[in-house]
Amino acid sequence: MFPHTGAPLSADLRADLFKAIPHLRAFAISLTGNVDQADDLVQDAIVRGLSNLDSFTPGTNLQAWLFTILRNHFHTLLRRRKREVEDPDDAMASSLSTPPEQHARLDFQDFRTALAQLPLEQREVLLLVGAEGLSYEEAAQICGTAIGTIKSRMNRARARLAELLHLEDEEDLGTDRVVRAALSVNSIRSAVSDRAP
């Protein structure tokens, strides 16, 4: 049962909340780099969402609304911890590692390592649009910025990932759904041609 102080949740709203949880969790893991912290972040986002359900506009995208709550809460926590340096699970240290140079198929760990090297703004847009399939408009709303800024961050993120992963053509993308979604073939070709002398 969801912690909610107002009227009982409708079956549709309850179903939408349950459908959003895996997507929220994936986004939170990518932001925090830590499964336990991500789970706490998702739980906090859902509790905050349910506590403020009266501010949700029925008929709009509940998942995007929850992404916004999660993202805002994450940035609030970041500001609080700005001067702290915590790395108990070596998550920070592992994110600073360089992926091995290779011309074979990518594996998911190489992708995660490269993804962790992107600036947070680029990483979250790449995950919202590329992996979660949200529109640029929805991502702009979640991030509280202009659509043009989202498109620019997306382009820079894809180009940087292509560079970090030494991607030259479609075969280098491998078979992972998230990698393929985040780095579409056209984006890779564009990034590779932009790097060409």
Number of DSSP helical runs: 10
What's the CATH class label of the largest domain? Mainly Alpha
At the fourth level of CATH, the homologous superfamily of the largest domain is Winged helix-like DNA-binding domain superfamily/Winged helix DNA-binding domain
CATH architecture of the largest domain: Orthogonal Bundle
CATH fold group of the largest domain: Arc Repressor Mutant, subunit A
Question: What is the average of the pLDDT values?
Answer: 76
- β content, as a range? under 5%
Count of folded domains:
2
What is the percent of helical residues? Answer: 55-70%
Give structural notes.
There is one protein chain. With 197 residues, the protein is an all-alpha fold. The protein folds into two domains: 9-97, Orthogonal Bundle (Rna Polymerase Sigma Factor, Chain: A); 105-197, Winged helix-like DNA-binding domain superfamily/Winged helix DNA-binding domain (Arc Repressor Mutant, subunit A). The chain contains ten helices and no strands.
Quick structural overview:
65% of the residues lie in helices and 0% in strands.
